[in-house]
Amino acid sequence: MKSLSELLDIRAKLIKDNQESESRTINDDDCAFLYNFIKLHAVTTAVEIGTWLGTSAMIMAECGVEVWTCDQHKMFTYKHPKIHYYNMWSTAFLKKLKKDKLKFDMAFLDGRLMNEDVKRMVKLLNSKASILTHDYMGNAKGVRNFKSLKKYIGEIEVHGVIGVTCLKK
Ligand SMILES: C[S@@+](CC[C@H](N)C(=O)[O-])C[C@H]1O[C@@H](n2cnc3c(N)ncnc32)[C@H](O)[C@@H]1O
């Protein structure tokens, strides 16, 4: 398995190759958090909303996680056998995952869930699954996703709803 420092180098290369700004993809601290979280919680499968460049998907996959991820934009270029990327909105994506009878240990939410997505997302999670809501600050999407999800958390035994704070400089 690659070291965190090797993964941060891949992140830097993704940004450079795509001539993108640092701020739209998860930062180095978030990468470290995700890397350690996956190891601590022995995550094997994850669903992600908001692929963009694919830094977060790359970290998860390189840590051995099988990742299903979607984005309405086509910015994703990082090929990895464990990354299942869908260029679509979350609503169609979550319906597809349900139809395919997939279940997940973790959700990494870096896009805004639509109202109709919220319950569907929770139902896709295994018991003791974790939900990470990125951009957890002020009224940003992480906080709004967290608030929407909280209503349904009682329905399954979710291990924790974690807001990953991401302070963009
Ligand atoms: C901050 S970027 C994600 C960064 C990515 N996690 C990374 O590490 O490179 C947020 C992305 O979420 C996508 N997005 C937001 N809401 C979405 C939704 N409901 N369905 C699909 N994509 C969505 C946007 O198109 C955008 O590309």
Architecture overview:
By secondary structure, the protein is an alpha/beta fold. The chain has a single domain, classed as Vaccinia Virus protein VP39 (Rossmann fold). It has 6 helices and 6 strands. It has a 6-stranded parallel beta sheet, with helices on both faces. α6 (141-150) links the parallel β5 (125-134) and β6 (160-164). α1 crosses α2, α2 (28-40) runs parallel beside α3 (55-62) and α4 runs parallel beside α5 (115-123). It starts with a helix and ends in a 5-residue tail after the last strand. It binds S-adenosylmethionine. S-adenosylmethionine binds next to α3. S-adenosylmethionine (SAM) binds next to α3.
- The low-confidence parts are none
Bound molecules: S-adenosylmethionine
Second rung of CATH, namely the architecture? 3-Layer(aba) Sandwich
What is the name of the CATH topology? Rossmann fold
Major sheet size, sense and barrel closure:
6 strands, parallel
Give me the number of helical elements.
6
DSSP helix fraction:
25-40%
| Strand fraction | 15-25%
Give me the Rg, rounded.
Answer: 15 Å
Find the CATH superfamily: Vaccinia Virus protein VP39
CATH top-level class: Alpha Beta
Number of strands: 6
Overall form? globular
Question: What sequence of helices (H) and strands (E) makes up the elements?
Answer: HHEHEEHEHEHE
Average pLDDT metric? 91
The end-to-end distance, rounded to whole angstroms, is 30 Å
Oligomerization: single chain
Class of secondary structure makeup: alpha/beta
Q: How many structurally independent domains?
A: 1
Read across the widest sheet, the strand sequence of neighbours is 3-2-1-4-5-6
